[in-house]
Specification:
This protein is of the alpha+beta class and 403 residues long. The protein has two domains: 203 residues, ph1033 like fold; 183 residues, Trna Endonuclease, Chain: A, domain 1 (3-Layer(aba) Sandwich). The protein contains 14 helices and 17 strands. Strands 1, 2, 3, 5, 6 and 8 form a six-stranded mixed β-sheet that branches. About 7% of the residues have low confidence.
Length: 403
């Protein structure tokens, strides 16, 4: 059975569920192949299984975060449908409102959607071929402004949507039901409308490129040689101020445990450490010879996590070979994604200003086996704005713009 028929069958049976949100959030789904449920919908999210169908409802963009949207461009209605592949959790902001609110210390409890549902296939009713999805998502995740201009992309995504009035005219309504409810009443009529609209739809396959789950329990579970290093990609610079440390942020930190989020990302972090460790071994072999390889040490695997760095290596200073220390920070997000660093790591950097650096592994795609990175010296790290959540480093922000 083809994808369109599979989706139409589930809709007609009344088994399809509805997912709804502001249209700018669906731009993220277009790029990533996943949607997010908030904590209140975790019970619904946990029930989702492979093969389930979700129908995508868009609502108008949130003007607190989006500019450039013309009121003449209507957005309400159904804009697509997808087949569930799996579910997972996320720990970093990916939707525009999450990105902006997570940088705003005046927001005591940023709205988050941590419960992801990944799609294998999606039928998009809009003109998605006109949307540079990955570039748009990079803009979203790297946004350091209060609002982002997404008007033209929203217009392309909203075109060809099934409007509320068209659905009502054939006798289909879903009442006030929110995300997660099944579209049961008069579902055959909805299926008929979707069948007509599907002639204009674009089928995108996400299963082959979606980020797989990575479950690493040891260094033997991962092969760094299978990955391609795609070079240095630095954060883009912005004059935007980072979150302030004014009073009132305490409630924000109480609501969101950044250290726990970092702990939940342990497997991704280990993957990044092993990628950098292998490249460091290759560098030392070329520059210093085989006899120095035993001085390149992956600390968590041999001596534990308390050293203040992840990899001990060597560098030639011109007057001799000296120890060199590397702390690895890893994300599947872009170069401008903030990262977390402990007080112990900051203190170690301050104590070793000439032979310490951060390697920020980013854009790590487990499915495609590719990644980028950039490096920060101890001096650069210590001079960058940090929010004391122990600590979040705000990359891509000019230090002289900070209070």
């Amino acid at each position: 059975m083809d994808i369109t028929s599979r989706i139409l069958e589930e809709i007609a049976k009344g088994e399809a569920r509805k997912a709804n949100g502001p249209i700018e959030h669906w731009l993220t789904t277009l790029a990533t192949g996943f949607w997010g449920f908030d904590a209140d919908k975790e019970s619904v999210w946990s029930e989702l299984k492979k093969g389930d169908v979700l129908v995508f409802q868009s609502i108008p963009p949130n003007n607190n975060f989006v500019i450039g949207h013309s009121p003449k461009t209507k957005t309400s209605g159904f804009i697509g449908a997808g087949i569930v592949q799996r579910i997972s959790k996320k720990t970093e902001p990916r939707w525009l409102s999450e990105v902006i609110e997570s940088q705003n210390s005046n927001v005591s409890s940023p709205m988050m959607w941590p419960n992801l549902v990944h799609f294998s296939d999606v039928l998009w009713l809009g003109d998605v071929g006109q949307i540079p999805a990955q570039a748009v998502q990079a803009m979203i995740e790297g946004c350091a402004e209060e609002k982002l201009d997404l008007g033209i992309h929203i217009a392309h995504l909203a075109i060809n949507r099934l409007t509320l009035n068209v659905m009502k005219d054939v006798g289909f309504t879903y009442a006030p039901m929110g995300t997660g409810g099944r579209l049961r009443n008069n579902a055959d009529k909805l299926a008929g409308l979707f069948k007509t609209q599907a002639k204009l739809a674009t089928h995108i396959v996400y299963g082959a490129t979606d980020q797989p789950i990575i479950n690493l329990s040891s260094t033997t579970d991962f092969d760094p040689s299978a990955f391609t290093y795609e070079g240095t990609r630095l954060p883009t610079k912005s004059k935007a101020k980072p979150p302030s440390t004014a009073e009132g942020k305490g409630a924000y930190l109480h609501k969101r445990d950044y250290l726990q989020e970092a702990a939940n990302n342990q497997s991704l972090g280990l993957a990044g450490e092993l990628l950098v460790f292998e490249r460091e071994r290759q560098r030392v072999r070329v520059e210093h010879g085989e006899e120095y390889l035993n001085r390149v040490v992956h600390m968590p695997a041999t001596e534990g996590d308390g050293a203040g760095y992840d990899i001990r290596s060597v560098r030639d200073t011109g007057s001799g070979v000296i120890p060199y220390y590397i702390e690895v920070k890893t994300t599947s997000g872009g170069a401008n994604t903030a990262f977390f660093i402990s007080e112990n790591e900051v203190n170690f950097a301050a104590s070793n200003p000439q032979n310490f650096e951060i390697v920020r592994v980013h854009s790590l795609d487990i499915g495609k086996k590719t990644y980028h990175d950039y490096r920060l010296s101890a001096g650069e790290l210590l001079g960058m704005p940090k929010t004391p959540v122990s600590y979040r480093v705000n990359v891509g922000i000019e230090p002289n713009q900070c209070d």
